[in-house]
Amino acid sequence: MITNVREIRSALLAATANMPVDSKSGTPTPATTFAPISHIKALHPQVTLVVGKRGMGKTFWTQALQDEYIRSMLARYIPEFARTQVAVGYGNTDAPERYPSTKTFSNLLQEYAPEDIWRAIIVHAIASHPCLNLLARPFVHGEWADDIKAVQSSPDKIEEYLHEANATLAEKDIFLLILFDALDHTAYLWKNTDTISIALLKTVLKFSRYSSIKTKIFIREDHFKRISFPDEVTSILVFREYLAWNDYDLYSLLWQILCNAPDKYGKIFRSIFIDEMQKALEEKNGIWQIDSYAQLNDKTLTPLVHKLTGPFMGDNAQCGFSYVWFVGHLADTHLQTTPGVFLFAIRRACEDTAQNHMDAQYPIHFESLCEAALSASEIRILEMKEDNPWAVTLLSLLKEMSVPCSFREVEAVWKKAYPQGPGMLVEEDPQLTPPEFADGNWNDVRKALEDLGFCFRLLDGGFHIPDIYRIGFCLGRKGGVKPLPN
């Protein structure tokens, strides 16, 4: 199929108009689901703990794994998913029939041990699943306090029920996978969240002896790093997996979405894709799937991407290669770009080209990629602000400074705003600010910002910020993309 630039540009506008850019963009669909190899490892039922930064896919996979068709798609990589059923033990949506709300959890902690609370939640999740509806329930679910009391008062009865449930699942050749996400929502204060999270690991460890009942915990990386885990959960920690996205993973996700665009638009992109990588794309039940184990790498995907963007960020190679430049300017200090920010930036670049560069040589103009990087910076900052408002507050104070700079300059600005030290941040927002700041100094705060990917330390000790944050915080840098206008 021979297609001209304007047709591809129109197809891009149609295909990217409703792309999912965050967990609030609707539930995952087979057409928008692509699993990088690192994610396939993390999703395996035998992996209990999955760690990921904000936006890397924790909530996405919690939602996606509840979809039977998506599980069947993933079964080509994880055969166990062909016989896996899913329950949710905790998540980021209100579901009082499945687990307690933040307020209820906090109230329960005043009377009950967190391990007992989790045990009641897990037993309830098992007992509520349709595949076990013929078994006598160990307790009648009413108030969560009643369930916890039942777990406490009848441990032998609960144990007997779990063995019977496991045997029934094994007889039916079913894996029951119980998912936990958004543990930072379980309490109002970090110290309570840490206690609850440790209790969950202790609890699921005891369930590991059941062959047909598996658990999977998705946890934020910054939350994981700050918890002091006891030795007894070491076995879970050792076999943890991380969610990450390479450049070629992001571009593979993009082509998965483009190839599933409706009507003639999907045909256009499938024709372009097949010209380069025929064996990597296949259709099943009307869904076009890119094989995660195909030769998906920077070498094979660069020609595909350059058919959309052109090879250069200007007239020649000295301006940078589009494939590398674009993702690089969306990455944090750990060289990680979130799929939501990436897809948002692609959509914005398509819109800007259609508005301002209709006669461009390629479907997406390189100046539109630059403009998209500006817009994406704002989006990423808003994302991070939800979990780390203290960080956004501090970095906003640096507005109009230029980086790299000495940390003394940065510290001087923060000391002026918070003369009594980082403890003032905890007083402002005790719920979301790390409690250790109360007794810490500004170097401790810097380290926390570095761990989150907001900034990095130069060899001479200098302070620097990657473009994905620098632009949105209106900081200057010689030779960099200009900051957003005030």
Question: What distance lies between the first and last C-alpha atoms, to the nearest angstrom?
Answer: 46 Å
Given helix and strand content, the structural type is alpha/beta
CATH level-1 class of the largest domain: Alpha Beta
CATH topology of the largest domain: Rossmann fold
Largest sheet: number of strands, sense, barrel closure: 5 strands, parallel
* Cross-sheet strand order for the largest sheet: 2-3-4-1-5
Specify the helix fraction band: 40-55%
Number of strands: 9
What's the number of structural domains?
Answer: 3
Mean pLDDT: 91
Number of helices: 22
CATH architecture of the largest domain: 3-Layer(aba) Sandwich
Rounded radius of gyration (Å): 24 Å
Give the strand content.
5-15%
Low-pLDDT runs: none
Name the overall outline: flat
What does this entry look like structurally?
The chain is α/β, with parallel strands linked by helices. The protein has three domains: about 5-20 and about 245-375, no CATH class; about 35-240, Rossmann fold; about 390-470, no CATH class. The protein contains 22 helices and nine strands. The longest helix is centred in the last third of the chain and has 22 residues, at about 365-385. The chain is flat, with a radius of gyration of 24 Å. The two termini are about 45 Å apart.
